[in-house]
Design goal:
The chain has helices spanning 5-19, 22-34, 39-48, 50-53, 55-74, 94-106, 113-117, 119-133, 141-153, 159-170, 176-190, 192-206. The longest helix is centred in the N-terminal third of the chain and has 20 residues, at 55-74. It is 72% helix and 0% strand.
């Protein structure tokens, strides 16, 4: 089964947010809205990008979304706002939820020398990324991982993380065939160099 239209549309949105190409991001946001993504779904992708590309890129992306939606209103285009996230379970902390989510996403508890060396980054990952962000049910984990690999593919020097998230994406509903389709979308949207690197890392992950 191929990626659906919305899943395909999220890939360039995440990629251009991560690279900071706001002109291409704006075009991708327009395309996503035209294809049925809600404003809140796109906003959720852009908010998630802070964990992978930093607050400046995330904030610039959110500003571009706001600008785009405002311009479309002036043009008479009415976009679907979408549905906000469900409340978190009462009595559970972001760290507790994130620890469980991370284990389920990866398929095993995440440990290692790096996290023993820096327990703070382990806590940030669990509480902020896998708790505060991944607990929000606006996007499925499959879609969140597609956004993640799109962002990482368009950032230089993070092939190790890209390889890991290819495997995590496959643990959450993305097939190897869909990852090959992902590479084709990258080539169309981001160019040959980005796509070739992403393909090479994917081949390593699949091996």
């Amino acid at each position: 089964m191929k990626l659906n239209t919305k899943e395909q549309a999220i890939i360039p949105i995440a990629a251009f947010t991560a690279s900071g190409d706001l002109t291409k991001l704006k075009a991708s946001i327009n395309q996503g809205l035209n294809l049925g993504l809600s404003i809140i779904e796109i906003r959720e992708v852009l908010q998630q990008m802070y964990a992978y590309a930093g607050f400046p890129r995330s904030l610039n992306g959110l500003g571009t979304l706001l600008e785009t939606v405002t311009e479309r209103k002036v043009q008479g285009l009415i976009d679907d706002l979408g549905i906000e996230a469900s409340p978190f379970p009462e009595g559970r902390t972001s760290f507790e939820l994130g620890s469980e989510n991370q284990t389920q996403l990866v398929g095993r508890p995440v440990t290692g020398d790096l996290f023993e060396f820096s327990p703070e980054i382990d806590r940030y990952l669990k509480a902020h990324l896998f708790g505060d962000i991944f607990q929000r049910d606006i996007l499925s984990w499959k879609v969140r991982e597609l956004a993640t690999i799109a962002a990482l593919a368009n950032i230089h020097g993070v092939n190790s993380q890209l390889r890991s998230h290819y495997l995590i994406s496959m643990n959450n509903g993305v097939t190897s065939e869909q990852l090959k389709e992902f590479i084709q979308i990258l080539q169309k949207e981001c160019g040959e160099t980005i796509a070739l690197n992403a393909k090479r890392v994917l081949e390593e992950a699949l091996a």
